[in-house]
Amino acid sequence: MPEYIWDGETLPVPVEDIVDSVYGLLVRDVDDMSAAPGAPPASAGHLSGLLLTGPGEIWVDRAEGIKWPGRRRFTISHELGHHILHSTGGQPLFCRGTVIDEAPEVLAAVTKKRKPKVPLIETEADIFAASILMPSHLMKTQYERCDGEIERLMKDFKCSQKAITRRVLHVVPRDRRRPRRPA
Ligand SMILES: [Zn+2]
Known about the structure:
Number of helices: 8
Bound molecules: zinc ion
Shape: globular
């Protein structure tokens, strides 16, 4: 990606700029997610995010985004993951809050299970989101720099505690990890 959008080092990763300037997708914070064309009825479950492949839009639930800005970044990144990995058929993708997991398992653990809890593409999008928001080389460096302080990492990466904690487990080698301190 062009250096002026992101230099690969500066935190937090400007995921909205990347979505917009690199992939040409419009991010919209909306009050009524069920207003999207083709969306399932609100009674089918709360939608956190969705990807409209036709017009090239990502919608995120406004109230959820205001309450949890880290979650909003994760949802946007999850939808970008769908755009890059899964949007081959031009179908819109609707993601309920329960399928966007900020602490995904590693893919091998998911594929080994006979019956995964959520469709595989949702876990793939979660892993994509964790990877773009918390690149492993930057997580390792920052982790050392702040002596494993989760609160500090949450600020640096602008991600939730849940997302940071899982990412640390996945990318920081066990023998480098600090004992967890109470928040
Ligand atoms: Zn999804």
